[in-house]
Amino acid sequence: MQKISSPIVIRIIQTILTLEILSGVATQTWQAVFVGAATLGLTFLPERFAAFFGIRLPRSVLTSIVVFIFATMFLGEVGDFYEKFWWWDVVLHFMSALSFGAFGFLLIFMLFEGDRYAAPPWALATLAFCVGLSIGSLWEVFEFSMDQLFGMNMQKSGLVDTMKDLIVDAAGAAIGAFSGYLYLKGRQFGGLGKVLEQFVDANKRWYGK
To answer: What is the pTM of this model?
Structure first.
């Protein structure tokens, strides 16, 4: 498989994180060092993970994943964006749920080997929605566990924060799954439909039918 170099945006993010880690060591700001190092490590994982399973990630998908990791972990925690911007958490939850809904569709469509007629489009979209919402629910379980076990404050206002996140997750997963439905119908849902098409085209071996 031919290796594709990482987009310039990813390289910039990795450079920023490296500089922040060095700055944190110099100033002994250990939280910034720890979070920065963890974030930097995670930026390399999507490409390695995809290569391990023989999956090709389009540049747009790879860049979006890394930007999301950077926005969630580093900007959110070290940059304190969650406190500075009330909408930061909402936007990230929505975008992640949207992505998971689309990912759910790609996964289920892959299990059907790309056969558009193996099941009705609405059935595939419904399963994709369930995958997206399930992942969002598991994240809420993770947040609750971290708060209970380590005294963190990931849930912020507790039940209200959890339910707000789940509602946003449901909306995002529904849109992501709907984009898959339209894709099977030969239509597009903005740029998301184009991303689905790029992923399927890049992984023809998994979508052979």
So the answer is: 0.81
